[in-house]
Amino acid sequence: MTSVLIIGAGVSGLTTGVLLAEAGMSVHVRTAAPPSESTSCAAGAIWDPLYATHERVPLWSGVAYRTFAELAVSAPDAGVRMLDGIEASRTRTTPAEYASALPGYRLCGPDELRPGFTAGWRYHAPVVDMPVYLEHLQRRLKAAGGTMSIGYAPRLADVAGEAPVVVNCTGPGAASFVPDPTVTPIRGQLVVVENPGLDEFFAEHTDDLREMTYLLPQGPLLLLGGSAEPGRADVAEDAAVAERIKARCALIEPRITSLPVLGHRIGIRPVRDPVRVEHELVGGHHVVHNYGHGGAGVSLSWGCAAEVRELIAAL
């Protein structure tokens, strides 16, 4: 039985742990903080692989889409919903290549577009309630015999060799853990309000990610987004950013205008060009990297975890 130590318990670390443990490997996950405090827990988590760079993104994201679609049916307590919605652009543009292959895809008519938007398309996609979903992954990990502990690992060189295989799922921490100076933190913030009755998502398609607009129904809650601040790695609430988010979203859905803010979710996207999923020998010890997914960690999670499993099986 292959023994594996995974460093990191965000969505990449837990998903990898689940797949490896369910494949019969002996898996231990070490994390500096509980999954509920990870940057993954703050994610809006609509399936959208657009903002990740790697030639295998179509493959990885396809695996994740199919897995989430299955979970939405087979595991009603996993926090995964398959929703219809609109992705729209303020400029005339063509849809992302992946969108046209999705269930329910069609171009929007002019009457379906919100004010200020000139093009849009509809499709069916997973939207994941991350606090609930991370609990689901932890239950699966435990059920498969995997274990988890809280412990800080400052450097890869300190843990390489602690197990026959170490899997690096440190996300934004990879910048110092590996160290990998090509990992860039990009801060994102969401605003949480009561859901006034939305059952479809809205996502802005734009190259300017600093103040993109999206509304993601999560049952009784509605997540409003978003922001992207390169180089910023603090997770303190920014009232000015939150105010702008709510104002932009109110133009899309006026019913939220008077709703009180129930909370904020702030996370750090670990951006790397390209995403790193590969085997490396560190001091003669086997290490498999799985990090740098940017804002597409959830969207690539099952595909990247499956690739890690294949890399380990080939050792």
Automatic annotation (TrEMBL):
Names of the cofactor(s): FAD
Residue spans crossing the bilayer: none
Pfam families: DAO
Keyword Methyltransferase: no
Domain of life: Bacteria
UniProt keyword terms in alphabetical order: FAD, Flavoprotein, Oxidoreductase
Ranges for domain FAD dependent oxidoreductase: 4-310
Catalytic activity line of the entry: a D-alpha-amino acid + O2 + H2O = a 2-oxocarboxylate + H2O2 + NH4(+)
Enzyme Commission number(s): 1.4.3.3
Any one GO MF annotation of this record: D-amino-acid oxidase activity
Family listed: Belongs to the DAMOX/DASOX family.
Entry protein name: D-amino-acid oxidase
Organism: Catenuloplanes nepalensis
